[in-house]
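G., the chain you wanted modeled:
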Amino acid sequence: MLFEQPAREWFDKLWKTCTEHIPTLLSSITNLMSKSPDQMQMDARARLNNIIDAGTDAALTALDHGLAALFAQCVQAGFTTANKTSWMARAQLRLDTWLTWHTRTVHAFCKRNGHWKRNGTRVSWNETIRRLFTNSLDVSFTSLNDNVQPAMNHFADNLNDSIFKRLHEDDIVAVLDPRDKNLRGTIVGQQDEFSTDLKDFLDTLRNLVEDIRLRCVLGGSGSYVHGEMERSYALAASFDQKSYPHVRGAANKLLPGNSALADRIDTLRSKLSRPGPDNLFERVEARVDSDFDEGRKMFLNALSKRLAKLKAAIMDDFDSKYGIEGEEVPLAAHVATELATAAQHALRRLKQDIQPTLEQCKKLDDSGCGEP
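Predicted structure as tokens:
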């Protein structure tokens, strides 16, 4: 029992070596010996190119989908119909309070984009409005930021499996990389550099999330609330008390049901407490979605460019070391034939003698027949 786990691990390695690695290597040798140096170089280059391209596309696509899913799970889930209905109800109560204020005070707030003073105290309506809905969203953005690093770690693992691990284990690289050329050393160096740069990309992604969070949960200039309320404030401020009909013979008394104050507050109600596509909370949701989508695309584009730089470094190194410029002496025809024949013979022995024995051992182990 003490040695059971290590024995199985070694058997798994032997199984993989005999069923995957060695057969691929022997097949590669057979193919290489039947080709000219130019063909060998082109095939090897195409293989490296395809490994990097396929791995890059797969990893970036998975990261894109992963970030979109995280955003939907953490942030978009906060903009539920129930939440928006609750926010509008709370806004209605606040507007009812503002309706009791003096008409000139309300007018002053509207003229100054929601910033003025009341009873000697400076007040921000935008700050009041943002407090109606941002507490729960602040938690949502914190959750998103907490999940950014695991997403990037998963991206790094995908790259390692689909690009770097495959390049390190690739049999063509093994065949072409003897002597002092050390293409693998270049691959390792590029992998290390990219791993270092990933830390900067993680910071960039976190800054994107934080920037959107601040625009969402703050009420100052540059915030979503400020940007969305400007037009409503301007419209509300445009109502002039003098243009409303007055009671005949009473210049300071308006006809019942007519006042600039009521129309100003009603304008704000249209933005804050009535459902529709122009409702503040709908618009904030749309802007959050749009900004994250745009930022995510820019982030992935920058990441794609960095991976293109990595690929160029590896391919340039390959070209400088393995480019066919007449300096390589091709193998004599009979030597190439003998090597190819030997590789084919070894491959047959492997498939006919060694692999069946390993398969039988694996069946016995899986069935538990080897246990006392």
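The chain has a mean pLDDT of 83.

Shout if anything looks off.
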